[in-house]
C-alpha cells in the first residue's frame, strides 16, 4: 500500500466503539438527519455530491465527519468520489429499533408540520416511505 492509499483511508469506529450518545448527537442535527434519510431511502451508496444541502461545502464536510465518527455512516473513496453508506446493520445490532424509530419520528414530524394544501417542509415523509418503512 502506498502513502497515497493510506492517506485516503478514512477512520471509522469499530461497531463495539459506537456510543449511543454519539449516534443521538449525530442524528439530532436537521442537516445530518436529512443525509441519513437520503441514505436510508437508497439501495446504493451515495456520493457526497448527491446531497443538495443548504450549507457551505466546508460545513457539509463537517456534517459527514460527525456522521462517520459517530458510526452512523461508512465512507469510502472510489476514485476521487467519496461514497457514503448507512451502517444500518451495526446500528440495529447495537441499538435495536433506534434508527427506524428516528426515521419514523422524522416522517411524523413532517406530517405534523405540514399545512393542508401545502407540502410538508422537506421530503422527510416521502424519504422515510422510500426507505421501505
Verbal overview:
- The chain has 133 residues and is mainly alpha-helical.
- 51% of the residues lie in helices and 11% in strands.
- The chain is built from seven helices and three strands.
- It has a three-stranded antiparallel β-sheet.
- A hairpin with a 2-residue loop joins strand 2 and strand 3.
- Helix 2 runs antiparallel to helix 4, helix 3 packs parallel to helix 7 and helix 6 runs antiparallel to helix 7.
- The radius of gyration is 15 Å and the shape is globular.
- The N and C termini lie far apart (41 Å).
- 27% of the residues are buried.
Please name the defining characteristics of this protein.
133 residues; mainly alpha; three-stranded antiparallel β-sheet; 7 helices; 3 strands; globular
Count, helices:
7
Q: Would you report the number of β strands? A: 3
Which outline best applies? globular
Largest beta-sheet characterization: 3 strands, antiparallel
Percent helix: 40-55%
SS class? mainly alpha
- Topology pattern, helix = H, strand = E: HHHEHEEHHH
Q: What strand order characterises the main sheet?
A: 1-3-2
pLDDT under 50 segments (min length 5)?
A: 1-6, 118-125
- The fraction of residues assigned to DSSP E strands is 5-15%
Question: What is the assembly state of the chains in this entry?
Answer: single chain
For the terminal residues, how far apart are their CA atoms?
A: 41 Å
Amino acid at each position: 500500500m502506498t502513502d497515497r492509499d493510506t492517506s485516503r483511508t478514512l477512520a471509522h469506529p469499530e461497531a463495539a466503539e459506537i456510543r449511543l450518545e454519539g449516534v443521538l448527537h449525530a442524528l439530532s442535527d436537521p442537516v445530518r438527519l436529512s443525509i441519513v434519510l437520503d441514505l436510508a431511502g437508497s439501495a446504493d451508496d451515495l456520493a457526497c455530491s448527491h446531497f443538495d444541502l443548504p450549507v457551505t461545502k466546508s460545513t457539509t464536510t463537517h456534517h459527514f465527519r460527525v456522521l462517520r465518527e459517530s458510526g452512523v455512516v461508512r465512507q469510502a473513496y472510489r476514485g476521487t468520489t467519496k461514497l457514503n453508506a448507512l451502517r444500518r446493520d451495526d446500528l440495529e445490532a447495537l441499538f435495536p429499533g433506534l434508527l427506524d424509530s428516528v426515521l419514523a419520528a422524522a416522517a411524523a414530524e413532517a406530517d405534523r408540520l405540514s399545512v393542508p394544501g401545502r407540502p410538508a417542509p422537506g421530503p422527510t415523509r416521502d424519504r422515510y416511505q422510500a426507505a421501505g418503512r
